[in-house]
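Customer escalation, tier 2.

The customer says the design service returned an amino acid string that "doesn't look like it belongs to this structure." They asked us to rerun it and document both sides in this ticket. The original structure tokens are below, unchanged.
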């Protein structure tokens, strides 16, 4: 445990009843040669001892191991300040040793918190408190000085409620900052955090995001050198949504065979054909697509990934233009304006074309925007049962912040 010469184990015993190994520790006389007053670093002497405190340590041969110790309290010779001597084995939380914290963090990387609690036999609350301290300490040391390409996306804590805006460094593929809400103000908070960690708002050249006006306003107000980029993932997501709106409108409208064909089929139309499971592919093949409006919308949607393979922005600009005209032309011929949600998407594409075409300039960096979604689900899995903003943000930094935990 690296006790050094200032501390010694005075007794080790095994308690049959609780199956616990106790390693009782106390300070040696040498300790006082190195203890200094935390206020003025003057020499201190022993004042008294605390009650017996215990720290949870790594198991010994599968047995729970605890360290009981009556901690000495020092008194400054100069200012009289009385303080608790910090033992070298103590982690960042007062209940665990450093080694135990390192082990628990290792488990937390692999599994949900509730499962870690089960395995190590500690309460969730204590483990969370430890994680808060570890993440806070590591985050305080994080360096954002090279950040130039950022992306922002929203994560919902509960289905459709309580949003958190998450900012990521698209080059180093890490989460930089997260905060409650999804209005333009979150950008102000972001640049504040950025600059607290040696970054600079003027250094931000790329800001990837969905097409929400709030985020765009936020970027314009805070990062003047940033070009807004609307990433492929969000463009395709908007088109997927529109296809589903067509599907629901068509189901409402009814007609021969429409219900059978479209009921609970939303997943079929969302994927590229090569990603369908065998079962899904069979169902899609069984649907008579000729007269379905949903199938028309789906055909439009299928063209998009293809446009994204265009070699240059100029080619892509031309093809997006053709796509928008095609959508309008088909929609005009359909009764009851049933393809209107597709037309809306076409309008959105035209309005945001510059930001969409920026994909060709910044293409590579955008891969992480899509990756964020799996980061979000991993975070939610690990924090199961603890969906408060602070729990989720802490877990998000832990899972995806690429933080360095200095003591290990
Ligand atoms: Zn002092």
């Amino acid at each position: 445990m690296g006790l050094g010469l200032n501390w010694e184990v005075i007794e080790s015993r095994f308690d049959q009843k609780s199956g616990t190994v106790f390693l009782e520790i106390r300070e040696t006389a040498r300790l006082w040669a190195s203890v200094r007053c935390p206020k003025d670093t003057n020499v201190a002497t022993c004042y008294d001892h605390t009650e017996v405190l215990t720290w949870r340590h790594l198991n010994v041969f599968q047995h729970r191991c605890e360290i009981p110790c009556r901690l000495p309290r020092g008194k400054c010779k100069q200012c009289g300040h009385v303080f608790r001597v910090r033992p070298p084995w103590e982690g960042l939380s007062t209940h665990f040793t450093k080694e135990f914290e390192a082990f628990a963090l290792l488990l937390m990387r692999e599994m949900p918190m509730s499962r870690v609690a089960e395995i190590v036999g500690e309460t969730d609350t204590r483990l969370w408190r430890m994680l808060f301290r570890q993440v806070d300490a590591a985050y305080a040391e994080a360096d954002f000085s090279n950040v130039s390409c950022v992306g922002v996306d929203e994560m919902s804590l509960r289905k459709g409620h309580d949003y958190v805006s998450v900012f990521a460094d698209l080059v180093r593929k890490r989460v930089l900052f997260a905060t409650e809400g999804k209005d333009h103000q979150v950008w102000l908070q972001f640049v504040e955090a950025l600059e607290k960690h040696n970054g600079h708002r003027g250094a931000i050249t790329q800001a990837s995001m969905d097409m929400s006006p709030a985020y765009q306003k936020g970027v314009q107000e805070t990062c003047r050198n940033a070009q807004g980029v609307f990433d492929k993932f969000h463009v395709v997501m908007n088109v997927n949504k529109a296809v589903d709106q067509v599907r629901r409108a068509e189901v409402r409208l009814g007609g021969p065979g429409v219900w059978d064909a479209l009921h609970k089929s939303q997943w079929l139309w969302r994927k590229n054909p090569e990603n369908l499971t065998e079962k899904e592919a069979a169902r899609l093949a069984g649907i008579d697509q000729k007269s379905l409006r949903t199938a028309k919308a789906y055909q439009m949607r299928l063209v998009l990934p293809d446009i994204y393979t265009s070699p240059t922005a100029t080619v892509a600009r031309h093809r997006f233009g053709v796509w928008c005209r095609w959508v309008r032309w088909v929609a005009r011929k359909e009764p009851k304006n049933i393809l209107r949600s597709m037309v809306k998407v076409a309008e959105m594409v035209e309005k945001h074309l510059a930001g969409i075409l920026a994909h060709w300039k910044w293409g590579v960096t955008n891969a992480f925007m899509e990756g964020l979604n799996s980061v979000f689900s991993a975070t939610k899995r690990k924090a199961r049962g603890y969906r408060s903003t602070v729990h989720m943000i802490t877990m998000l930094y832990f899972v995806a912040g690429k933080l360095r935990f200095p003591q290990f």
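Tier 2 assessment: The sequence is consistent with the input. Residues 232-351 form one domain. Strands lie at 7-15, 20-27, 44-60, 63-76, 82-84, 149-158, 161-169, 174-180, 206-209, 227-230. Sent an explanation to the customer and offered a walkthrough call.
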